[in-house]
Design a protein that fits this description.
It holds the Pfam family ABC_tran. This protein has 268 residues and is an alpha/beta fold. It has 2 domains: 146 residues, P-loop containing nucleotide triphosphate hydrolases (Rossmann fold, 3-Layer(aba) Sandwich); 67 residues, no CATH class. It has 10 helices and 10 strands. A 6-stranded mixed sheet has the order 6-7-8-3-9-10. A hairpin with a 2-residue loop joins strand 1 and strand 2. The protein starts with 14 loop residues before the first strand and ends with a helix. The model has no long low-confidence stretch (mean pLDDT 89). The protein binds adenosine-5'-triphosphate.
Amino acid sequence: MAAQLKPASEAATMVRVRGLVNRFGEQVVHDGVDLDVRPGEILGVVGGSGSGKSVLMRSILGLRRPDAGSIEVLGLDARSEDPDLRRMIERNTGVLFQDGALFSSLTVGENVQVPLKEYHADLPDSWRYELALLKVKLAGLPADAINKLPSQLSGGMRKRAGLARALALDPPLLFLDEPTAGLDPIGAAAFDRLIRTLQQALGLTVFLITHDLDTLYAICDRVAVLADHKVIACAPLHEVEQLDHPWVQEYFHGPRARGARDAREGGN
Ligand SMILES: Nc1ncnc2c1ncn2[C@@H]1O[C@H](COP(=O)(O)OP(=O)(O)OP(=O)(O)O)[C@@H](O)[C@H]1O
Protein backbone atom coordinates (compact mmCIF):
# COMPACT_ATOMS: atom_id res chain seq x y z
CA MET A 1 0.00 0.00 0.00
CA ALA A 2 1.28 3.50 -0.83
CA ALA A 3 2.49 5.52 2.15
CA GLN A 4 -0.01 8.07 3.37
CA LEU A 5 0.96 11.47 4.60
CA LYS A 6 -1.15 12.92 7.42
CA PRO A 7 -2.11 16.58 6.98
CA ALA A 8 0.03 18.75 9.25
CA SER A 9 -3.05 19.71 11.28
CA GLU A 10 -3.70 16.05 12.13
CA ALA A 11 -0.16 14.94 12.81
CA ALA A 12 0.47 14.76 16.57
CA THR A 13 4.13 15.43 15.96
CA MET A 14 5.84 16.63 12.81
CA VAL A 15 9.07 14.87 13.77
CA ARG A 16 9.39 12.10 16.32
CA VAL A 17 12.83 10.78 17.29
CA ARG A 18 13.25 7.93 19.76
CA GLY A 19 16.38 6.26 21.05
CA LEU A 20 18.61 7.74 18.36
CA VAL A 21 22.20 6.51 18.40
CA ASN A 22 24.95 7.92 16.16
CA ARG A 23 28.59 6.89 16.35
CA PHE A 24 31.63 7.65 14.26
CA GLY A 25 34.07 4.85 15.02
CA GLU A 26 34.79 5.04 18.75
CA GLN A 27 33.15 8.46 19.06
CA VAL A 28 29.60 8.40 20.40
CA VAL A 29 27.69 11.48 19.26
CA HIS A 30 24.14 10.49 20.20
CA ASP A 31 23.23 7.84 22.74
CA GLY A 32 19.47 7.68 23.07
CA VAL A 33 18.20 11.00 21.72
CA ASP A 34 14.43 11.54 22.04
CA LEU A 35 12.76 14.55 20.47
CA ASP A 36 9.34 15.70 19.27
CA VAL A 37 8.75 18.64 16.97
CA ARG A 38 5.16 19.82 17.33
CA PRO A 39 3.00 21.21 14.54
CA GLY A 40 3.29 24.95 14.08
CA GLU A 41 6.19 25.56 16.46
CA ILE A 42 9.63 27.03 15.97
CA LEU A 43 11.89 24.63 17.84
CA GLY A 44 15.37 25.93 18.53
CA VAL A 45 18.06 23.26 18.84
CA VAL A 46 21.12 24.29 20.84
CA GLY A 47 24.18 22.59 22.26
CA GLY A 48 27.92 23.01 22.44
CA SER A 49 30.11 22.73 19.38
CA GLY A 50 30.28 19.08 18.37
CA SER A 51 27.25 18.09 20.47
CA GLY A 52 25.61 16.64 17.37
CA LYS A 53 23.06 19.21 16.20
CA SER A 54 23.89 18.86 12.51
CA VAL A 55 24.16 15.08 12.74
CA LEU A 56 20.68 15.05 14.31
CA MET A 57 19.29 17.14 11.46
CA ARG A 58 21.01 15.00 8.86
CA SER A 59 19.60 11.85 10.48
CA ILE A 60 16.06 13.28 10.44
CA LEU A 61 16.44 14.24 6.79
CA GLY A 62 17.65 10.77 5.86
CA LEU A 63 21.09 12.09 4.84
CA ARG A 64 22.77 9.93 7.45
CA ARG A 65 21.83 6.44 8.50
CA PRO A 66 21.83 6.30 12.31
CA ASP A 67 23.22 3.32 14.21
CA ALA A 68 19.97 2.79 16.13
CA GLY A 69 16.64 4.38 16.97
CA SER A 70 13.49 5.40 15.17
CA ILE A 71 12.66 8.61 13.33
CA GLU A 72 9.28 9.62 11.97
CA VAL A 73 8.79 12.66 9.77
CA LEU A 74 5.14 13.60 9.22
CA GLY A 75 4.20 10.15 10.42
CA LEU A 76 6.50 8.43 7.88
CA ASP A 77 9.46 6.23 8.72
CA ALA A 78 12.42 8.46 7.90
CA ARG A 79 14.81 5.49 7.96
CA SER A 80 12.99 3.76 5.14
CA GLU A 81 14.82 3.39 1.85
CA ASP A 82 11.60 3.08 -0.14
CA PRO A 83 12.13 5.66 -2.94
CA ASP A 84 8.44 6.73 -2.98
CA LEU A 85 8.50 7.38 0.72
CA ARG A 86 11.81 9.21 0.49
CA ARG A 87 10.37 11.46 -2.22
CA MET A 88 7.31 12.14 -0.10
CA ILE A 89 9.46 13.21 2.83
CA GLU A 90 11.72 15.28 0.58
CA ARG A 91 8.73 16.89 -1.09
CA ASN A 92 7.42 18.05 2.30
CA THR A 93 10.62 19.33 3.90
CA GLY A 94 12.52 22.48 3.02
CA VAL A 95 16.13 22.78 4.12
CA LEU A 96 18.41 25.78 4.46
CA PHE A 97 21.95 24.53 5.03
CA GLN A 98 24.46 26.69 6.83
CA ASP A 99 26.31 27.80 3.71
CA GLY A 100 23.12 28.19 1.67
CA ALA A 101 24.24 25.28 -0.56
CA LEU A 102 23.27 27.12 -3.73
CA PHE A 103 24.58 25.96 -7.11
CA SER A 104 27.17 28.63 -7.89
CA SER A 105 26.79 28.40 -11.68
CA LEU A 106 23.00 28.87 -11.59
CA THR A 107 21.15 32.14 -11.05
CA VAL A 108 18.98 32.55 -7.96
CA GLY A 109 15.88 31.88 -10.06
CA GLU A 110 17.40 28.72 -11.54
CA ASN A 111 18.39 27.55 -8.05
CA VAL A 112 14.82 27.99 -6.81
CA GLN A 113 13.54 26.15 -9.87
CA VAL A 114 15.67 23.05 -9.21
CA PRO A 115 13.12 21.44 -6.85
CA LEU A 116 10.25 22.73 -8.98
CA LYS A 117 11.73 20.97 -12.03
CA GLU A 118 12.19 17.78 -10.09
CA TYR A 119 8.71 17.65 -8.60
CA HIS A 120 6.68 19.61 -11.17
CA ALA A 121 8.34 18.62 -14.43
CA ASP A 122 5.01 19.04 -16.23
CA LEU A 123 4.65 22.76 -15.46
CA PRO A 124 5.32 25.18 -18.33
CA ASP A 125 8.65 27.05 -17.95
CA SER A 126 6.89 30.40 -17.59
CA TRP A 127 4.88 29.12 -14.61
CA ARG A 128 7.98 27.78 -12.94
CA TYR A 129 9.66 31.14 -13.43
CA GLU A 130 6.65 32.95 -11.91
CA LEU A 131 6.63 30.55 -8.95
CA ALA A 132 10.35 31.11 -8.42
CA LEU A 133 9.78 34.88 -8.55
CA LEU A 134 7.09 34.56 -5.91
CA LYS A 135 9.43 32.65 -3.59
CA VAL A 136 12.26 35.13 -4.18
CA LYS A 137 9.96 37.97 -3.11
CA LEU A 138 8.58 35.94 -0.20
CA ALA A 139 12.14 35.54 1.07
CA GLY A 140 12.47 39.33 1.06
CA LEU A 141 14.72 39.69 -1.98
CA PRO A 142 14.17 42.32 -4.67
CA ALA A 143 12.72 40.91 -7.89
CA ASP A 144 15.92 41.59 -9.86
CA ALA A 145 17.86 39.19 -7.59
CA ILE A 146 16.26 36.35 -9.56
CA ASN A 147 18.72 36.80 -12.44
CA LYS A 148 21.83 37.13 -10.28
CA LEU A 149 24.44 34.51 -9.52
CA PRO A 150 25.02 33.68 -5.83
CA SER A 151 28.48 35.29 -6.09
CA GLN A 152 26.81 38.61 -6.95
CA LEU A 153 24.85 38.62 -3.68
CA SER A 154 25.76 39.59 -0.12
CA GLY A 155 25.87 36.88 2.56
CA GLY A 156 22.44 37.90 3.86
CA MET A 157 20.94 37.84 0.38
CA ARG A 158 22.43 34.40 -0.26
CA LYS A 159 20.69 33.15 2.89
CA ARG A 160 17.43 34.57 1.59
CA ALA A 161 18.01 32.89 -1.78
CA GLY A 162 18.59 29.59 0.05
CA LEU A 163 15.38 30.19 1.96
CA ALA A 164 13.49 30.88 -1.28
CA ARG A 165 14.69 27.54 -2.59
CA ALA A 166 13.77 25.78 0.66
CA LEU A 167 10.23 27.17 0.28
CA ALA A 168 9.94 26.29 -3.41
CA LEU A 169 7.61 23.33 -2.89
CA ASP A 170 5.54 24.92 -0.09
CA PRO A 171 6.78 22.40 2.49
CA PRO A 172 4.98 22.32 5.86
CA LEU A 173 8.27 21.54 7.61
CA LEU A 174 11.35 23.74 7.41
CA PHE A 175 14.88 22.91 8.62
CA LEU A 176 17.31 25.76 9.18
CA ASP A 177 20.95 25.16 10.11
CA GLU A 178 22.38 28.27 11.78
CA PRO A 179 20.44 30.70 9.58
CA THR A 180 21.91 33.83 11.15
CA ALA A 181 25.55 32.67 11.31
CA GLY A 182 27.79 35.15 9.54
CA LEU A 183 25.18 37.92 9.44
CA ASP A 184 25.67 41.27 11.15
CA PRO A 185 23.29 41.90 14.09
CA ILE A 186 20.88 44.01 12.04
CA GLY A 187 20.81 41.46 9.21
CA ALA A 188 20.38 38.65 11.72
CA ALA A 189 17.45 40.38 13.44
CA ALA A 190 15.81 40.99 10.06
CA PHE A 191 16.25 37.32 9.15
CA ASP A 192 14.71 36.28 12.49
CA ARG A 193 11.69 38.48 11.78
CA LEU A 194 11.39 37.01 8.30
CA ILE A 195 11.37 33.46 9.67
CA ARG A 196 8.72 34.33 12.26
CA THR A 197 6.56 36.13 9.68
CA LEU A 198 6.77 33.28 7.19
CA GLN A 199 6.14 30.68 9.89
CA GLN A 200 2.97 32.49 10.95
CA ALA A 201 1.75 33.34 7.46
CA LEU A 202 2.37 29.90 6.00
CA GLY A 203 1.68 27.83 9.12
CA LEU A 204 5.16 26.31 9.00
CA THR A 205 6.80 24.08 11.56
CA VAL A 206 10.46 25.03 11.95
CA PHE A 207 13.43 23.02 13.24
CA LEU A 208 16.14 25.59 13.79
CA ILE A 209 19.73 24.89 14.81
CA THR A 210 21.34 27.96 16.27
CA HIS A 211 24.09 29.36 18.46
CA ASP A 212 22.40 32.74 18.33
CA LEU A 213 20.87 33.69 21.66
CA ASP A 214 19.04 36.61 20.08
CA THR A 215 17.26 34.19 17.74
CA LEU A 216 16.24 31.97 20.66
CA TYR A 217 14.79 34.86 22.62
CA ALA A 218 13.19 36.50 19.60
CA ILE A 219 11.40 33.67 17.81
CA CYS A 220 11.66 30.18 19.35
CA ASP A 221 8.59 28.63 20.98
CA ARG A 222 10.58 25.83 22.58
CA VAL A 223 14.24 25.00 22.88
CA ALA A 224 15.87 21.56 22.78
CA VAL A 225 19.28 21.25 24.43
CA LEU A 226 21.74 18.62 23.20
CA ALA A 227 24.31 17.66 25.82
CA ASP A 228 25.83 14.48 27.21
CA HIS A 229 24.84 12.69 23.94
CA LYS A 230 21.13 13.26 24.60
CA VAL A 231 18.39 15.89 24.49
CA ILE A 232 18.56 16.88 28.14
CA ALA A 233 15.64 19.34 27.93
CA CYS A 234 12.99 20.40 25.45
CA ALA A 235 10.76 23.15 26.78
CA PRO A 236 9.98 26.88 26.57
CA LEU A 237 13.02 29.04 27.06
CA HIS A 238 12.14 30.29 30.55
CA GLU A 239 12.04 26.67 31.77
CA VAL A 240 15.22 25.59 29.97
CA GLU A 241 17.13 28.54 31.41
CA GLN A 242 16.50 27.23 34.92
CA LEU A 243 18.01 23.80 34.29
CA ASP A 244 20.76 22.86 36.69
CA HIS A 245 23.32 21.75 34.09
CA PRO A 246 26.77 23.29 33.65
CA TRP A 247 26.46 23.96 29.91
CA VAL A 248 22.96 25.42 30.29
CA GLN A 249 24.06 27.65 33.14
CA GLU A 250 27.08 28.92 31.24
CA TYR A 251 25.19 29.41 28.00
CA PHE A 252 22.01 30.99 29.34
CA HIS A 253 23.46 32.99 32.21
CA GLY A 254 26.62 34.43 30.69
CA PRO A 255 26.87 38.10 29.69
CA ARG A 256 25.75 37.46 26.09
CA ALA A 257 22.57 35.79 27.30
CA ARG A 258 21.78 38.70 29.57
CA GLY A 259 22.17 41.06 26.61
CA ALA A 260 19.84 38.99 24.44
CA ARG A 261 17.26 38.69 27.22
CA ASP A 262 17.35 42.40 27.97
CA ALA A 263 16.96 43.22 24.28
CA ARG A 264 13.94 40.94 24.10
CA GLU A 265 12.35 42.37 27.23
CA GLY A 266 13.07 45.89 26.06
CA GLY A 267 11.35 45.12 22.75
CA ASN A 268 8.11 43.98 24.41
N1 LIG B 1 31.00 12.41 8.64
C1 LIG B 1 31.58 12.43 9.84
N2 LIG B 1 32.63 11.62 10.11
C2 LIG B 1 33.20 11.63 11.33
N3 LIG B 1 32.80 12.40 12.35
C3 LIG B 1 31.77 13.22 12.14
C4 LIG B 1 31.09 13.29 10.88
N4 LIG B 1 30.08 14.18 10.96
C5 LIG B 1 30.13 14.66 12.23
N5 LIG B 1 31.12 14.09 12.93
C6 LIG B 1 31.45 14.38 14.33
O1 LIG B 1 30.27 14.33 15.09
C7 LIG B 1 30.28 15.32 16.10
C8 LIG B 1 29.02 16.14 16.01
O2 LIG B 1 29.06 16.91 14.83
P1 LIG B 1 27.96 17.99 14.46
O3 LIG B 1 28.39 18.63 13.17
O4 LIG B 1 26.61 17.40 14.48
O5 LIG B 1 28.09 19.01 15.67
P2 LIG B 1 27.31 20.36 15.91
O6 LIG B 1 26.63 20.25 17.23
O7 LIG B 1 26.44 20.67 14.74
O8 LIG B 1 28.52 21.36 16.02
P3 LIG B 1 28.72 22.90 15.61
O9 LIG B 1 27.89 23.68 16.57
O10 LIG B 1 30.17 23.13 15.81
O11 LIG B 1 28.28 23.06 14.17
C9 LIG B 1 31.56 16.11 15.91
O12 LIG B 1 32.52 15.67 16.83
C10 LIG B 1 31.98 15.79 14.50
O13 LIG B 1 33.38 15.83 14.37
